[in-house]
Backbone:
């Protein structure tokens, strides 16, 4: 059973903004994204279309599928059913590639400026298997830009959980989330999960630092126009984030791709990977560093 402390974000910033803005976040709010949506037309892959249609229009959307051979009828079908699922969202370009699914998705993201790669949680079929545990994890582990693993939504994106550990990876995730064009009634729950070893009644300095970190991040997200609350859960990182997602009925969990802080570790391959596999909702993994294929990550 996890203990938790919940705070609705009000008042002044408790930490210097240099942590959150260490990776260079400007104050100009949401920006347009270049989105690469990888699909094979399966039900799992189409969950990503459902997620994208809940967000405000304006982003440049590139639809990509991977086939075993050129002009594959199954590939053309995958693109068409996905385009239909996107409805009025609109697609800038449809593209069929041949080869290994993960390698081709990564190559496509590198070849053109890409701010976000979107994949479904369970892709099936000969067009290219976007199975969690294979392609999706390989893409999330190696992509230079954020990767969204989309699962079916109950409704619009109304509740988001972001996990913090004080690392640069978490800072990048918070900065990126601040510019993600979420629906106006969406609430962002800023969560740190940590176990504090201390005597009964003792208030360790690490706990106070974690609370201050939460409030600092919530303040910056609120400055970016997000509704926020903060929550310190005295639990392990994975268990704490998943419990928060379940209790709040989250539609999205956001984690950094690397975490190096003693409060908790959000390392891709440990916490982030476990959250991707076990979360009841979509998961956005944001890398700590930018580079080619990460225009939002580098905030040009």
Residues:
């Amino acid at each position: 059973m996890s203990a938790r402390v919940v705070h609705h974000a009000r008042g002044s910033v408790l930490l210097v903004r240099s942590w959150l803005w260490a990776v260079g976040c400007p104050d100009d709010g949401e920006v347009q994204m270049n989105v690469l949506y990888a699909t094979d037309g399966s039900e799992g892959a189409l969950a990503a279309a459902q997620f994208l249609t809940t967000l405000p229009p304006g982003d440049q959307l590139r639809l990509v599928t991977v086939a075993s051979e050129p002009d594959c009828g199954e590939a053309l079908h995958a693109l068409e059913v996905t385009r239909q699922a996107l409805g009025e969202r609109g697609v800038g370009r449809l593209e069929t590639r041949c080869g290994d699914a993960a390698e081709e998705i990564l190559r496509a993201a590198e070849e053109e400026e890409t701010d976000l790669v979107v994949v479904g949680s369970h892709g099936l079929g000969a067009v290219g298997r976007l199975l969690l545990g294979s392609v999706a994890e390989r893409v999330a582990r190696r992509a230079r830009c954020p990767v969204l693993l989309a699962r079916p939504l109950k409704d619009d994106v109304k509740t988001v959980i972001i996990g913090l550990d004080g690392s640069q990876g978490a800072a990048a995730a918070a900065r990126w989330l601040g510019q993600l064009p979420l629906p106006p009634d969406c609430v962002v729950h800023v969560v740190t999960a940590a176990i504090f070893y201390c005597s009964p009644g003792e208030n360790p300095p690490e706990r106070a630092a974690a609370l201050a970190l939460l409030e600092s991040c919530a303040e910056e997200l609120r400055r970016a126009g997000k509704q926020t609350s903060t929550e310190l859960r005295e639990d392990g990182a994975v268990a704490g984030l998943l419990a928060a997602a379940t209790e709040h009925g989250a539609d999205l969990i956001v984690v950094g791709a690397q975490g190096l802080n003693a409060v908790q570790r959000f390392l891709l391959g440990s916490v982030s990977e476990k959250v991707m596999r076990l979360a009841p909702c979509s998961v956005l993994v944001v890398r700590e560093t930018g580079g080619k294929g990460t225009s939002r990550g580098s905030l040009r």
Remarks:
- Residues 178 and 224 are 6 Å apart (CA to CA).
